[in-house]
Amino acid sequence: MKINDTLSGLLLALFAAAIFIYAGTFPSMRQQVGPALFPQLLAGGFMICAFLLICKGLRQTRTEAWFSLPPWFGERRAVFAYLLVLLSLVFYICACEALGFLPTATILLLSLSMTFGARLAVAMPMAIASALGIHCIFYKLLKVPLPWGMLESIAW
């Protein structure tokens, strides 16, 4: 899918503004660095990228369409793979609390790997190792409370 850079830049600017405004509602902390700092810095970076995209889009020739479908859009398997990525996000949102992060991430990584052509012998260990690695990074190092779901009894 080809979207004109001006339109992409405007959408990115709106997204950056929404992040910046929402992060401003985060509670302040006694320390100098509060929870709003990183999201607002990220929003600032997005705004710079949006400005550059808008400038690039305005310099492009006027003959380009604002929106065009990619050549793969007519291929059934490619469209299925694209939709599976979007549906996996919905599945994660719906299933993560009940199943827990580890089973949900393993199912998602396994199904996406198999869809994109990996063999089961490679996809299964990769999905399990990746889910465990991501869990350790977020849960242990970054202290992000990931849901345990049905694995609550073995939570570490």
From TrEMBL:
Transmembrane stretches, start-end: 7-25, 37-58, 79-102, 122-142
UniProt superkingdom: Bacteria
A Pfam family matched in the record: TctB
Keyword Isomerase: no
Keywords attached to this entry: Membrane, Transmembrane, Transmembrane helix
UniProt cross-references to InterPro entries, sorted A to Z: DUF1468 (IPR009936)
Domain DUF1468 positions: 8-147
Protein name: DUF1468 domain-containing protein
Originating species: Verminephrobacter eiseniae (strain EF01-2)
Organism phylogeny: Bacteria, Pseudomonadati, Pseudomonadota, Betaproteobacteria, Burkholderiales
